Amino acid sequence: VAGACDGDCKFLSDGLYCPVNDVREHADSNKDVAAVAARLKEDPVNYEAAKTIYTEGLQSSKGGGVFRTLQDLAQKDQTSGGKYTNIFYSGAVDLYGSTDAIWHDWIIACLDGASPCDGKSDDFRKYVINKGLIGV
């Protein structure tokens, strides 16, 4: 739906935001974040199901049966023409050394219980995953 919100546009799933372009499918990645959070609240924590949502997608369709994934978003190169698109991203890449190190490495390590999340509590791992996905 292109154009200003004039009562005819379709709001996103939050019912509050009406984009000027049809970005609903892309915005549905927020539903995947919520689905991961729900799996992390299960008892016992369902890291396997959360990881499947992170790596395969669930709600955000690219069309033709292909899903946009949180993993792809976490690993996306935010440069344009070899230049960084914002100060946060360029600073984070400079600090951490790679695109994956900003969000993906931490999220996947905590989903897998691998270093640096190995031996950490579920509360720690869930916190890192949830906060990382907010960043994504």
Give short descriptive properties of this protein.
136 residues; mainly alpha; two-stranded antiparallel ribbon
In short:
By secondary structure, the chain is mostly helical. Helix content is 50%, strand content 7%.
Give an account of the 3D structure.
This protein has helices spanning 24-27, 29-40, 47-56, 70-74, 87-96, 99-102, 104-112, 122-135; strands spanning 61-63, 66-67, 79-80, 83-84. The protein is mainly α and 136 residues long. The strands form 2 sheets. A two-stranded antiparallel ribbon has the order 1-2. A hairpin with a 2-residue loop joins strand 1 (61-63) and strand 2. The longest helix has 14 residues, at 122-135. The radius of gyration is 17 Å and the shape is globular. The mean pLDDT is 85.
Poorly predicted ranges: none
Q: Could you spell the SSE succession in H and E letters? A: HHHEEHEEHHHH
Give the termini separation.
Answer: 25 Å
Choose one word for the global shape.
globular
Rounded Rg:
17 Å
Strand arrangement, major sheet: 1-2
Number of strands: 4
Largest beta-sheet details? 2 strands, antiparallel
Output the number of helix runs: 8
How much helix is in the residues?
40-55%
- The structure class reads mainly alpha
- Mean pLDDT rating: 85
Task: Detail the topology: elements first, then pairings.
Layout: H1 24-27, H2 29-40, H3 47-56, E1 61-63, E2 66-67, H4 70-74, E3 79-80, E4 83-84, H5 87-96, H6 99-102, H7 104-112, H8 122-135
Antiparallel strand pairs: 1-2, 3-4
